[in-house]
Structures are given as structure tokens and as C-alpha cells.
Amino acid sequence: MKGIILLVLGIGLLHTASAATHSLKYFYTASSEVPNFPEFVVVAMVDGAQMVHYDSNSQRAVPKQDWMNRAAETLPQYWESQTGIFKGAQQTFKANIDIVKQRFNQSGGVHIVQKMYGCEWDDEAGVTEGFYQYGYDGEDFIALDLKTTKWIAPTPQAVITKLKWDSNTANTEYWNNYLTQTCIEWLKKYVDYGKSTLMRTVPPSVSLLQKAPSSPVTCHATGFYPRDVMVSWQKDGQDHHEDVEYGETLPNDDGTFQKSSHLTVTPEDRKNSKYQCVVQVKGIKKDFIEVLTDPDAANVVPIIGGVVALLLVIVAVVVGVVIWKKRSKKGFVPASTSDTDSENSGKAAPQI
Predict the structure, then answer these.
(1) From CA 188, how far away is CA 185, in angstroms rounded?
(2) Any idea what the CATH number is for the domain that residue 155 is in?
């Protein structure tokens, strides 16, 4: 398994008053033989904050934000409806994972099929985007191109699915309308319902961590909101990118986020140069800076015990989202539209 972490998209301009781009995303994940993990999980997110959760153990759609309860009060049978939709998808995904395993000539072992769909809306420019794609075992499997309303199959095992879905024009037209119209309408509603939470800013806690004197130094920022953050290094007052590795932005279980950046530097260079980690969070004008001192006056925290747990926490609440490593390379780019996008669709997911 390539890793179970939350998929997040992009870093916008920092230090602005409020987020200009809003997103509504649904992640459906079916898995086989993953220990202590539900066979099917649905996570729904607005602006990177989880709002709805469903899994095959509980078989209930539940709110993950207080404001979602208030929103549901205006929508009769909202949770019953969502639960019914997810239960139906659970059966389809159970069949899909068996079908794809056969296509790859696989039998047992850990395998994951995931669908990610949703939309984004720039509240300043009015531009919208929609996306609908599947992944298998951490790789792209199939995606809808909204410009051509055709399906893209980057792997031979997905060609059968592409041909079947291309011929089902009614289903394609439905999703095209959903992603470019309905989804945006619901996204705007959710942003309005949750604006007190989604528009807030929370400053980060920044620490420098190191496993051993010869190990890279990790700058770890956690507890910040929104998710748009830049964790960078400077050397003698200048931006420094050499021997720097940037980590993913990951969720914390309290709705905030964490991110790390790793610097490889020799003890000699630490003595002769001034290195500092700079953390910038969107919407907060202040920069958060931690200066790396020389090894003899080490200000880094050894990575042991609880600190290791801090670095590895992925959040049990937000589970089952596989990052598709080759997504950016293979061109599954959301197609731009000029109108609006949607809430969770009630249409049954087609069988792969």
C-alpha cells in the first residue's frame, strides 16, 4: 500500500485576507485485506475540512462539523439520504475492487480502489472546475475529461472501462452537469453554512526536529488553519532550496493541519551560515521563524517517542485517501468551466 493520507490540492497565494478558491471533494475508498480498516470509507470535505464521514463498519453518514448539523436542518432527511447513497456505492465498490484485481491478474493482498470527485470555485474570478477520477493501488486508473466529455484511460487495464463508459452517454452527460452546475451550487451553500469555521485563521506551532546529528533537520509546523501554508528555508537571509525536501500538508484530528520541510546540512555549514525555517500561513500577515543554531548549541528536538508519533500522525478520523503519485505527471487536470459546481450526487456509481 502506497500510503493512506489525505489528498490536498495546491498552495495559493499567502498572506491574503481570505481564501479565494473554495473546494468540495468526495473520496470513496474500497480496500481489501487492510488490517483494522473498514472495507469502504467515504470522506466529504469542504475547503480541506472534513464535513461528512461514512464507513462500512458503522454504515451511517455522520457530520464532522457542527455547522453541518445546522445545514442539515434545512434539508429534510439529509442524513438518511446520504447514508442510502453511500450504502449503494459500497456495494458497487465491493464489486469494482474484485473486477480490477482480475484485470491485473491479482488475487490476495492489500489493494485499494478509490474515486475522487468534486469541484472548485474561485469566489473572486468566478472560475469553476470539476473533476471525477478513479485510482487503483496508488496509480491513476480512469478520469473524465470535461472538455471532451470522454474518459481517459492511462493504463491498459482501464481501456475496457473507458469503452463501456464512453458508450454510456447519459451517464457522462449526468456527471458533466453535476460537476459544472450542481456541485458549485452546493459548494456555495456549504461555504455559507460553515463560514465562521472555514474563514478562520489559526497560527502554527513550529519546531525543529532531528533524529541524529547526521540526519536532515525537519521544520515541523502544526495546528494551523487554513491549509494553505508555505514551509521554506533561508540561508543567510536568502531563500534556500538546495538539499530541501518538502512534505505534504496533512490533517490533524482537530480540523487544523500540519506540514514539514526537511533540510540536509553539514554541521560545518550550520556553524558558518545562518539557516532559518520560515512558515507562512494564508490569511496571517506574520511570518513564523525558527533559527537553526550550530550543533554545539543545538536547538533541535530529538525525534524520539512522542515526537515520532507527532510526525507520523495521519488522523484516524480522516482515513482512506490514497495519494495518486502520478496524477500531476499524467495530466488528469480538472477542466475549467465558466459556471457553477455540486453536492454529493445521488446517482449510483457505474461498475468498472
Answers:
(1) 5
(2) 3.30.500.10
- Per-residue pLDDT of the chain in tens (352 residues, 90 and over written 9): 333 333 332 323 333 334 468 999 999 999 999 999 999 999 999 988 899 999 999 999 999 988 998 777 877 788 999 999 999 999 999 999 999 999 999 988 999 999 999 999 998 888 999 999 999 999 999 999 999 999 999 999 999 999 999 999 999 999 999 999 999 999 999 999 999 888 899 999 999 999 988 899 999 999 999 888 999 999 999 999 999 999 999 988 888 999 999 999 999 999 999 999 999 999 899 999 999 987 766 567 765 443 433 433 333 333 444 434 434 334 443 333 333 333 566 566 678 9
Q: Is 93 helix (H, G, I), strand (E, B) or coil?
A: helix
Q: Is there a domain that residue 317 lies in? A: no
Whether 186 and 236 share a structural domain? no
The whole-angstrom separation of Cα 321 and Cα 6 is 5
- 261-269 contacts at long range (C-beta below 8 A, 24 or more positions apart): 261/218, 261/219, 261/231, 261/232, 261/233, 262/216, 262/217, 262/218, 262/219, 263/216, 263/217, 263/218, 263/219, 263/233, 263/292, 264/216, 264/217, 265/216, 265/217, 265/292, 267/213, 267/294, 267/295
CA 64 to chain centroid, in Å, comes to: 16
Q: Is residue 85 part of a domain?
A: yes
Tally Cβ neighbours within 10 Å of residue 161.
21
Which residues span the domain enclosing 282? 205-312
Examine residue 3 and state whether it is found in any structural domain, yes or no: no
The number of C-alpha atoms within 13 Å of 338 and in the hemisphere containing its C-beta is 0
Q: Distance between the two ends of the chain, CA-based, in angstroms?
A: 21
